[in-house]
Design goal:
Layout (H helix, E strand, L loop, with lengths): L2 H13 L5 H20 L4 H8 L2 H14 L6 H13 L2 H37 L18 H33 L7
Helix pairs in contact: 1-2, 1-4, 4-5, 4-7, 5-6, 6-7
């Protein structure tokens, strides 16, 4: 491999910095393998670079594919989403992606915390304590501690569900703006 191809691989690795080192290494190995195969087939370095295209676009395709492979949430994937939008998504992605992905996390966390608050309020009631810091007010209606538990569970489920929906929208948006990976 010559200097041009090595520089291309370094750029690919740089653009994939947000991915785990093992994923990044696998991608670089795959691209390197394709380069060597093309070189063995008689193509020059320039022809190989032309065939692979812009390293940033190729990295964007790999990153978009890795993020959208499945729609489950992980903290590592959230970091990759932020890297994707800051590096590749343009102005709309820099605003929309962080907003909906952060909002999805907030709703999922709120969906877990809200029922816990209901359980704590109910347990306090059973032990004879009124935990004033945990409350829900719906206009003039303030639920009793017994009513508070099922209300907090319903609100928590709705919040968690909304967070999951927003996360799936994040993944769909990434799929939509992500270029398709070239068949190497």
């Amino acid at each position: 491999m010559d200097k041009i191809m090595n520089e291309y691989l370094v750029k690919i690795e740089k653009y994939l910095k947000s991915m785990s080192s093992s994923e990044r290494l696998d991608i670089v190995k795959e691209v390197k393998s394709v380069m060597l195969e093309l070189q063995n087939n008689g193509l020059s370095s320039e022809q190989i670079m032309e065939r692979l295209g812009n390293p940033k676009e190729l990295a964007k395709a790999y990153l978009g594919e890795a993020i959208s492979k499945n729609s489950t949430f992980s903290w590592h994937k959230l970091g990759a989403v932020f890297a994707f939008c800051s590096s590749f998504a343009g102005i709309s992605g820099m605003i929309l992606l962080p907003f909906i992905s952060t909002l999805s996390i907030a709703f999922m966390i709120g969906g877990i915390i809200t029922p816990i608050g209901g359980i704590i309020k109910f347990a306090g009631y059973l032990m004879g304590y009124d935990i004033a810091g945990i409350t829900i007010e719906m206009g003039a209606f303030t639920p009793s501690p017994i009513q508070f538990l099922p209300i907090s569970i319903v609100i928590g489920v709705l919040m968690f569900w909304l967070g999951k929906v927003l996360w799936k929208l994040t993944i769909r948006y990434i799929r939509a703006i992500s270029p398709k990976k070239k068949t190497l």
